[in-house]
From TrEMBL:
One of its GO terms (biological process) is lipid metabolic process. Keywords: Heme, Iron, Metal-binding, Monooxygenase, Oxidoreductase. InterPro entries: Cyt_P450, Cyt_P450_CS, Cyt_P450_E_grp-I, Cyt_P450_sf. Its cofactor is heme. This is Cytochrome P450. PANTHER family: CYTOCHROME P450. It comes from Salix viminalis. PROSITE patterns: CYTOCHROME_P450. GO terms for molecular function: heme binding; iron ion binding; monooxygenase activity; oxidoreductase activity, acting on paired donors, with incorporation or reduction of molecular oxygen. It comes from the Eukaryota. Heme binds at C142.
Length: 187
């Protein structure tokens, strides 16, 4: 989350888009009461495609688990022909894989949430766990992936929209803009 907010600081356009998405979603509430503390609902969080994309993009560039390793249980052969003897350690560098041109394209070093969105309808598109390896792949895939998405969305959304920000100009402007937007939506 620290890397995520650090990235937002240097990409204000992304922050604006996240705020716009959240504000639109909140603005659609029929029972909106600006005096009640903001609590996102599960059905609202499912609509946070751009935020999901931005969080995934931050994790691609700054994975919480940058290097992972396994030990070969039985003699085996990789699909590319690499022979693995029992007891061999296999290390894969999640950080490096997230920045490989061959995997992510020429703009692999840029923070571009759009790469996670379907061009036709802007909905979030997940990647194969063998391409986006931040949560491991195969049978030992992270069990908490969905859980962490929900907690990240809550943390990010509440921070950007609700909390007054001492000295953080953009965030406090964002919160005001959102509040205006929500009031407009309420008619
Ligand atoms: C950004 C947040 C997270 C990241 C990047 C992450 C990443 C990972 C990775 C790479 C592994 C594979 C470790 C290995 O076996 O080599 C893993 C496993 C696991 N994670 Fe996460 N994780 C995150 C959050 C969570 C949360 C919030 C939970 C629980 C609520 C969770 C529960 C687990 C469990 C239970 C496993 C073991 C799965 C197994 O070995 O079968 N993770 N995670």
């Amino acid at each position: 989350m620290s890397w995520f907010f650090w990235l937002l600081d240097s990409h204000p356009a992304v922050e604006e888009k996240i705020l716009a998405e959240i504000c639109k979603i909140i603005g659609e509430r029929e029972d909106l009461d600006p005096k009640t503390p903001l609590v996102f609902r599960p059905e609202e969080m499912k609509k946070m495609d751009y935020l999901h994309a931005a969080l995934s993009e931050a994790l691609r560039l700054y994975p919480s688990v940058p290097v992972d390793h396994k030990e070969v249980a039985e003699d085996d052969i990789f699909p590319d022909g690499t022979v693995l003897k029992k007891g061999t350690k296999v290390i894969y560098a999640i950080y490096a894989m997230g920045r490989m041109e061959a995997v992510w394209g020429r703009d692999c070093r840029e923070f571009k949430p759009e790469r996670w969105l379907r061009i036709t309808d802007g909905r979030f598109m997940s990647e194969s766990a063998y391409k986006f390896t931040a949560f491991n792949g195969g049978p030992r895939l992270c069990l908490g992936e969905r859980f962490r998405l929900l907690s990240d969305e809550i943390c990010c959304g509440i921070n950007l929209v609700s909390l007054p920000c001492e000295g953080g100009e953009r965030s406090s402007r964002g919160a005001e803009a959102c509040s205006d937007n929500v009031h407009e939506s309420m008619g």
